[in-house]
Structures are given as structure tokens and as C-alpha cells.
Amino acid sequence: MSLLQVDIQSAGYEKDNDIIQDIHFSLEKGELVGLIGPNGAGKSTTIKTILGLLGNIVGTVYFSNDTTYSYIPERPIFYDELTLWEHLDFVSSVEGLPDQPFKEKANELLELYNLADHAHEFPIKYSKGMQQKAMLILAMITNPSFYIIDEPFIGLDPNAMKLFLASIQKERTRGAGILMSTHVLDTAEKVCDRFIIIDKGKLMAIGTLDEIRTQCQLPNGSLYDCFHQISEGNQNE
């Protein structure tokens, strides 16, 4: 059974003003799906609809039984007066995580992302890259069934990006699914199993890279080539 099944007929921020229409896809265990589209295409609205943040929706978003998820926003969000460790402790309390396994995993992640020496500092004072790594740690501490990640590569240096990709690969190995919105098409092409390309609020193509190539009639095209053909074709309509 799919971890996530999205069947959105329409959704928007105001009644009778749809931003997205006919968005249908699923997310399976251990799968990494790239949500691709230009600025204003409807990626953020799709994510907000999945998260239940929009009141104006026609359709369904179905989570399989006992499914949990972590959301990593494009712009890190922290409480002003909590240190990173206090953020982690807060998440642990809310989620009811066993104390010893929580502390072991928290320390492991802090060491992995080189934030152990900064755990008792305020994340709002971190650099942007450190904040992004802190958000990753907060998301991973709960061992969710799947992740929704919005533009994860912004603010990460090459070493942190390598760590992030290794971390999500480890999560996939244990069966976690990942829905990742990104503009970094060359990296997405290398790591994603399938792609969802949306433009002007509508689903334009979906599938593996080979399936996308077939839909675009570009048998040897890169994800970048296919994306731009779809985008340019949509502009000419």
C-alpha cells in the first residue's frame, strides 16, 4: 500500500480561485520522488495541500495506516528562545520518543552534521547552512514513514549536500519515502526514482526519466531538456 496517495481535483487559497488542478500521484516505501516545476508552478501549493494547510480543496490526500511524516520547509523555522537541543527535546516530548534511543540518535545526528559543538546555541543565530542542517536533524529524529522536503539544497555547501544525500539514502533503505521539491535538476536526475513535473498548476508529466523522455519525445534528453520542453510548450499554449 502506498505511503501517500494524492488525488487533488482542485485547490487554492481562496474559494473559486484554484491554484492547482488535477494533481494525482502516489509515494511508495523507499521511493524518492522529485516534484519539479518553475517558480509559481504550484509546487508549494501542492505541498501545503498535502500538509492540510489549505481549506479550499476538492479531492483527497490519503495516508496509509500509522504513517508519520516530517516536513522540511525551504526556509528554516525555529523558536527564538530555544537552543537546538531544546528543539530536539521538545520534538521528543511531543512525539513520545523513548529517552535513551532519542539521546543516542540526537547525538549521532549532531556529530554527523558537525553541530555537536553548537547544540546548546540558538539556531536563529546560526548561518543559513547550519540552520538547514539543524532542520534536517529535527526531521530525522522521529524516524518518520516519509519526508516532504522543499528545496533541500539551498544553503548547503558541497560537503553538507553529500551528507544529506547519504542520510536520505539511509532513510530510504529502512523504507522511508521522500517527496522532494527542487530546482536542482542535475542532482534530482541522479537521485530520484520518479518525477512529477507541474506547470501553471497542472500535472504535465509523471514517471521515471525514461517515461518522461517518452512523453516529451526526447529519447536521450536530460531531465533539464524535458523540463524546459514541457515548460516552453506550456507557455506557447
CATH topology of the largest domain: Rossmann fold
Task: Tell me the name of the CATH class of the largest domain.
Answer: Alpha Beta
In total, how many domains does the architecture comprise? 2
- Specify the overall morphology: globular
Average pLDDT score = 92
Helix/strand/pairing class, anyone?
A: alpha/beta
Lateral arrangement of strands in the main beta sheet: 5-6-7-3-8-9
Number of strands: 9
Main β sheet profile: 6 strands, mixed
Entry keywords:
single chain, 237 residues, alpha/beta, Rossmann fold, six-stranded mixed sheet, three-stranded antiparallel sheet, 8 helices, 9 strands, 38% helix
Structure description:
The chain has 237 residues and is an alpha/beta fold. The chain has 2 domains: 160 residues, P-loop containing nucleotide triphosphate hydrolases (Rossmann fold); 68 residues, no CATH class. Helix content is 38%, strand content 24%. It has 8 helices and 9 strands. A 6-stranded mixed sheet has the order 5-6-7-3-8-9, with helices on both faces. Strands 2-1-4 form a 3-stranded antiparallel sheet, with helices on one face. The longest helix is centred in the last third of the chain and has 16 residues.
Helix and strand arrangement:
Elements: E1 4-12, E2 20-27, E3 32-36, H1 43-50, E4 56-63, E5 69-72, H2 84-95, H3 99-112, H4 128-140, E6 146-150, H5 158-173, E7 177-181, H6 185-191, E8 194-199, E9 202-207, H7 209-216, H8 223-235
Parallel strand pairs: 3-7, 3-8, 5-6, 6-7
Antiparallel strand pairs: 1-2, 1-4, 8-9
